[in-house]
Amino acid sequence: MKTIYNKLLFLLLFLPFSVLAQGTLGGTVLDSKTNQPIPGVNIVIQGSTNGMQTDFDGKFKLPKVNIGDKIVFSFIGYTSQTVVFNNQQTLTVNLAEESNELKEVVVQVGYGSVKKKDATGAVALITAKDFNKGAIVSVDGLLNGRAAGVVVTSSGTPGNDPVIRIRGGSSLLASNDPLIVVDGLPIDGGLSAINPNDIESFSILKDASATAIYGNRGSNGVILITTKKGSKKDLQVSFNSFTTLNTLAKKVDVYSADEYRVLINEKAPLKANLLGKSNTDWQNEIFSNSLTSDINLSVMGNLFKTVPSRLTIGNTDNSGILKTSNFKRSTASIALNPSFFDNHLKFNITGNYSYTFRQNADEGAIGSAISYDPTQSVYNPNSIFAGYTEWVVGGLPKGTANPVSLLNEKRNVGNQFRFFGNINIDYKFHFLPELRAIVNAGMDKQDGDGSVTVNPLSRSGFNNNVPNKQIGSYSETWYHNKNENLNAQLNYTKAFGKLNVDLLAGYEYQQFDWQNYYSGNKNLFGLGQNEEANEDVYTDPGNNLQAFFGRLNLGYNDKYLLTVNFRRDGSTRVSPVNKWANFPGVAFAWKIKEESFLKDSKTFSDLKLRLSYGETGQQNLGSSLAWIKKYSTSNNNYYQFGNEFVLISKPDGYNESLKWERSAKYNAGLDVAFIDNRLKASIDAYFSQTNDLFANTKLGALQNLGVYGPTNIGSLESRGIDFGLNFDAFQKDNFTLGINYNLTYNKIEITDLATDNDPQGGVGLGAFIQTHTIGLSPFSFRVYEQVYTPEGKPIEGVFVDRNGDGKIDSSDQYNYHKPQADVTMGLMLNGTFYKNWDYSMAWRASFGNYVYDDVNASRAFLGTINDTFNQTINNSPVDYSNTSFIAASKQSDYYIKDATFLKLDNITLGYNFKSVLNTDKYSLRMYTGVQNVLTITDYKGIDPEVFNNGIDGTIFPRARMYMLGVNANF
Question: Burial level of 851, CB count in 10 A (0-12/13-18/19+)?
């Protein structure tokens, strides 16, 4: 009892002193650089719930503080600071902005984000420092060549969308395009309408453990685009502008006018009278130097000292090197990122508006320029075809059309108005801060119109089927596309000792609607051509996607990481019988560097092993309702009822059992870093198998009311290796050098088909030069083996009898190379020198890809030079001198060419006027550079990098661009 009294007495005596030691701390929080107050700074006593935020003037007054308490000051974008309370009355705290080098690298994943060091899947992060530099007018220009396993093929046509492939794709008939998600909104293509200056980063999800949470759209990979957000700093203005001179890098090598005269006199002397007296380089006539200008202005700051905001406006005017081609884009984007209730409630609001105008040149003029007689002049004052020289036989236009007329006398224009945006609401429950509710609502709306006008007096406007033959053409189009998305999630995150748990569950709804109109040629209305029947408004049934999804992330002792994904997906593209499908994914990572035997290693800065498996689906079949029984009304087939003729309707083919394509994907990866993280590398080995491939197959008699139709038959395998490396090689005051390198090996093989040796790649007159064959890559070339003279000249019509049966027929064709590359590489070198100068260069390489040279196969033979059908003459590529072919030999392996290449995509040089401005508040940089600098290849065509599955017809050349630009920040 005495002991208890002594303890009570001690407490009563000590209590007044403890009360006296408790006080109130007041003060101000400032930005260490600008000395401006920071509102909304979180202030909390460590280990307690006692806390508050600074007011609009950065001031605070924190009560009930005990001597020795540690007070933590924290704010997004700034380094936290801890102060020990020693009975101070007032305090001024200066928070420093976080250095980019010190920030934890975060990558976006499906419906969330994760620290790069904790990522379990194959995810590539491309940020501003990794972007391609130079004259970038499209989003894909930032990304091309920068990530292992990602191949971007861009056209020279202004405003065209690129072809993007991640690990080669996984389908034959359906789309191989990756899913694009912008700020949480899945969009349906149309990257050309997005301003690249708005992009902050790309997160590229490559393995199925990362993409399975996107289910039916994740089979070809996912690209998550994050746009730039607002700031709580003072007002900042950024201005960026550049201008380029665009030039033709290479022409098709054809005969000059004098060489052509010799050729005609030798090979077609009876038509020498058709030769003209001019010397015309038709490629020079259709191509010309052009200008591109790009201007962007962004304003960023803290609106009303409460709402971090960003506003960007931009304008791009890109004139193509093919005359009459043009692309204009005006954009405006806004980002608002307010937070309330001590950051428990956060909003991320983004809106992007764009207007684009395109004038599409008739690219058929490129082929005509290769073939048109170089001895003819462009214009003929006696011509009835708008004054242009044209071939006229028997009063009718014949043969190759005048390429200049094709460009000047046809006007094909289109306008697009696009708005897409997203509202993200993130609420952290006050009574349970480990639980967050997240809602995303977004929309992508595209409206467009266009018209095509052809001069009645031009050759293209000539129509021999109407009395007034010079009728011309005028048609109109419009479209309305809408994509609406809503998803809601609950996210629970909590640490239980050494175990970290992150649980996500959600629901998503997305609706796509399309409507379009085509008028037909209105100039033919009322002339008995039934052109009115072509006027039509088409309303697509649309596509509705719904899903339930979830993800569990477990981390134990910061060493062992487990991710489990699941998505149950439904789509109206497949039969209701198979509408719903399940897509699981699982990944494991072991942070070996955190183990006791490596934790103190001076060799390794990081070492992590990753293993994953996942399943994804594909429903993008093109046809909206391929599974439903429906009828189509004919435009020109009638049934007679007495004296009345009625348009008939006929049943379409269908497949009620149509279901998803499914891909099962495996991935094993290793992340490693050395030299205090200056040298980082990742290597991934992957294997993918797609089953139930969509295929257009021949149907049985009276089966499903069709001859051919979509079915689920076949499988495809893909395997390969991705390797990426980042090395800060030099970091000196007067010189820095960063190296970014990536390499990908990829092999795709068809393992099952409904019809083996399925012909592909039609090149006219029933001839095919490609095949889908079990055991080969899609679109592998299937041709005859050419026989050559001892001097190496191909012998016309003589091929190897490969089966030895004494005759040459289709059974002697063989499989010879493929259009897909075995290996692709990307290399970027960038850095600074003499402090104020900066430089950058980007290289790409492709090995093992082959192309079919259709430019020569369709033109370089006597049958086109001496056109007996049209009674005209044509020019030819000079390859005719190498073959002397009389007739086309399109299925000869002579035209399969090695298209391996090494490209220097861009090189830039800039100067920062730091010493002139003498302040960190403002910056001014001027820069210059060249795009499409150099191509090293054995391929003789314009460009070895082609579309159309490896068939090189006539492509719009990629311009060589000489650039001058300025960037100012203040």
Answer: buried
